[in-house]
Amino acid sequence: MKQLITKDRLFKLHSWVGVNLSILLFVVCFSGTLAVFSHELDWLFNPAMRAQPSDEQASWNTIAANVQAAFPEGRITYWHRAHEPYLTDLIYVKQGDDLKYVFANPYTGAVQGSADITIARFMRDLHYYLFIPFQIGHFTVLFFGFVLTIALWTGLLYYRDWYKKLFVLKTGKGAKVFYSSLHKLIGAWSIPFLMVISLTALWYFVERADFPRISSYLDEARPTVQAPSGVEQPLSYPAIDYDQYAAIAKQAIPGLSVKGIYPPFTSTQSLYLTGPSEVPLVRYRANRVYVDPYTHQVLKVQQADQINTVTWLNDIADPVHFGYWGGLASKTVWFIFGLGLSILILTGPWLFLKKQKKLRKLKKERRVVYG
Predict the structure, then answer these.
(1) How far is CA 362 from CA 80, 180, 365, in A?
(2) What does the angle CA 279 – CA 290 – CA 251 come to, to the nearest 5 degrees?
(3) What is the dihedral of CA 159, 161, 167, 171, to 10 degrees?
(4) What is the CA radius of gyration of the chain?
(5) Tens of pLDDT along 166-197?
(6) pTM, entire model
């Protein structure tokens, strides 16, 4: 076994994945890095998405009425209240075949604008599937979870004394020495981050591939309901009393703060609400309350403190992968290490090509000397 795992083979494998797959790997990793602060980029470049935090919040129905007035032919299909208090609510409004992202101030209730796409949505979609259709794009991105894992472990095995590089940055000895030292320095500091990112990426692969049938542990089925006679279209505001459903969800899960509302897409679908409770780390969807939109009866409840291990892993993957579990502080750390990872991806091929150029020069000199 030791003969199979030699330093030379480790270096060749590390270099191969780092050089041959570097362009796509950089796109995936750098887009993920930008996605960490994508909501802040929306705040920076789109004034309509800014909100001034206040102790008082407008009622859900007030906001829904304002959205309905602004888009009389539209129907709310998803309502997301941001993690960040300085951002507006993001409401998906469907008008025929068109989808609008509507920005509503959660404190004043005013509709402040709309767009066909947001920076956050663009960056997340680029990172999720590179805009390649069907499942091809998703699995292309997820493949790089294996690439990162290989790069991490071949690097660790090749540089067994990696911990000695934590505070070493060589300067004044030329570009190659500097970038080689920088590559090792960033690589050493990035080990915990790379482990987190590669493990969550592998989890995404397992989830999407449904291997080994983890979907059987995830109770994500949306209950169906019996629509009253003559009702063929899904309910919308004002037939949907958002304030009433938010109160029902809070009663079903004590301590719940409603942050997401999913109205029914068809006349036989239930409505459900999500949001954080006292359980840390998990995403909004770890808490779910499904309600019959006609009878207001609670059909199913999922509480974050009662979910099984597989569901818990599934619900911490996003906050951990994108670093938003701890607000701006954790996002800043994730962004810095994401930039470091992007620099690793860029310096690796450059160092490899420099080494190859040097080897070709040495071979040429030997041919000249020895004929």
Answers:
(1) 61, 20, 5
(2) 60
(3) -50
(4) 25
(5) 998 999 888 888 988 999 999 999 999 999 99
(6) 0.90
